[in-house]
Design a protein that fits this description.
The protein has 544 residues and is α+β, with helices and mostly antiparallel strands. Helices cover 37% and strands 20% of the residues. 33% of the residues are buried.
Length: 544
Amino acid sequence: MAFVRRVRTASGATAVQIAEYVAGRQRIVAHVGSAHTEVELGVLLERARELLADPAQGVLFAVEAAPRVTPLAKPAEATPGLFDEPRPRVGVRDGAGRVVSTDSRVLYDALAGVYADLGFGVLGDAVFADLVIARVVEPTSLLDAGRVLTDLGRRPASYATMKRTLTRAGPDGGYRDRVAEACFAHVVAGGDITLCLYDVTTLYFEAEKEDELRKVGYSKERRVDPQIVVGLLVDRGGFPMEIGCFAGNQAETTTIIPIITAFQARHGVADMVVVADAGMLSASNLRKLDEAGLRFIVGSRVTKAPIDLASHFHWHGDAFTDGQVIDTITPKTGQHNENNQAVRAEPLWNPHTHPGSWRAVWAYSHKRAVRDRRTLAAQEERARAVVDGQKAARTPRFVKTSNGSQTLDQVSLERARRLVGLKGYVTNIAGNVMPADEVISSYHDLWQVEASFRMSKTDLAARPMFHRTHDAIEAHLTIVFAALAVSREVQNRTGLSIRSVVRQLRPLRSATIAINGTSHTLPPAIPTDQQAILDALNRSDVTH
């Protein structure tokens, strides 16, 4: 049986060897090296133990140190020629082992494993993978990405190579198509694509002039800078499946059809439910989704409640109970109402008997009513202050201007008070296919796409502040798309936010030590909590 042997040499060094007993005598199997300091001895002993644990590795190095030599006289220094090779030092020993560098390769390897598990390795582009992982760890400019990758234990590509990678990741490189296909395959393998969530956001630029893509338009952040509109389609768990970029002045309602159409064409999906908020609610959008054979659930505007709930208000007045759900119909257009309020029972939507209507589900919540009343009270107070001349501001809600004078719009205020606590949903799914409660719960999954947008804007710094051209912006969004998929998968596997995972794993530093002319990289000691995170990340069987 082999064992580790330490022997004092004539030069005063300690030799570390692997030996075994043969016929009662020790036989040297391998000489690992000689150490002159405790640090060197520790490194060699650890290496010897590794060789014992895995003999297949073989002895990869031998670091026999030369004995100290004290010359009797200082040798004459010859002047080197122009093409002379540098002479090796003979009889001169290096000093004690020293740390050359440290890095967070443990974090990089963990994220690279997730990247590979998602199928992104099909791109065959190591530089693209580095840029995606660098964005997950520390979003920064392309010029600064090399610093992040060096800290992660990688040898970064040159800046010119990174720029060429951006070109491949642009609209003509096909990278986004293959990333989207890998994301779709991942969702199909471990999730459910029967329900997809869609939403849009805006990313602004600090630019003075507009171009064909960066336009001034409606901003949810109330900015007047040029911007782009980004549409994102995710599964019900928030995992990204499709991303699209539109001109900054394009209306939100016109973005959903191109994204859904591209998704269907790419993956051949014929039957799925698309969930979107009230911003997507337009007669044209709903008609096109229905004509495409897709089912939808979109939020309704509370201003539609008086029409949709006319029968309820006629027979029951303003009375609602907490948790009450009313399943009725809503006109496809404002000119045609098929709900007869003279009939006490609400109509059950059927596409054949109600060709001019969609199904509408309205729910009342006491908690929402309390919040709505508080909001209305603040709006009423602000309106009264404007009417009384106490505040000069743009005309707020519930202020009516007539002949140059401003008055409080009591009719609108009372109508709003009648509708507090109500939330509506419009769908083309029949009640016998999806009950009203499931329609409501499916819509509430929209927080997942909102969470993905928050992750992309904050953790991944999706705003392309360092890019100006259309192709560069599209390439940047492709990297963000892939980084969002990796971040979401990390979150699904660990149950922790991507920021928490990075904060806990990045301090685990591997050290590269130089000893006797050779270098060795030592892994860090990993605490129990961080090891649990690494174990979770190494699992590829986690479904989301």
